[in-house]
# Entry
Amino acid sequence: MAGLTLGKGAWDCDNNVEIPPDKEQIVFEEVATREFLAFGVLPTVPRRKDNDHLAFFCDGCRYRIKASVHDDTVRDIRRRLWEGGLGRGGAMQTGKRDIIERWEDVMLSYKFKMMVDDDANLAEYGVPPGCKCLIAVDKNKLGKPPPFKSDYWA
# Structure
C-alpha cells in the first residue's frame, strides 16, 4: 500500500500523457546518488542537467513542458500547458484532476509574482532556464478559499 500523499502525480504536457509515479524521480532528476555526499556519507540529489524543461505545480500535480525562458512568451506557455493536459480534468493513477475551462484562465506565477504580461518571456520575470518550481493556477480560484471538504483542511 502506498503512503499517504496529497500529491496527484505528474503530467508530460509535450506528449499529453501521465508520467507514471514510478518514473517521476527519473524524469524530474530527483534520484539521489553518491556523486555528492552530505556529511561524507549521505547520498544527495545532484544538480539538475535538464535546462530545456520547466515544471509547474497545479492542483497538486506537476506539469512538465519543454520551453525556453528567453524565447517563449507567457501566452505561449499558458496555452501549451492547457493544450497539453493542465486543467483538462483527465484521470491519472493518482486521481482525477480539476478542470480549467479555457487556457486564458491559466495564470502563471514565480516567486509569488503573477505573470500578467502575456507578451513577456519568463526571463523577464526572473525565471531561470530549467526552473522546476513554477505555479499555475485557475484565475477563477484566486482569492477564494478551498472547498470545506478539500484535503487542504485535513
Notes: The chain has one domain: 10-153. Confidence is low (pLDDT under 50) at residues 1-6.
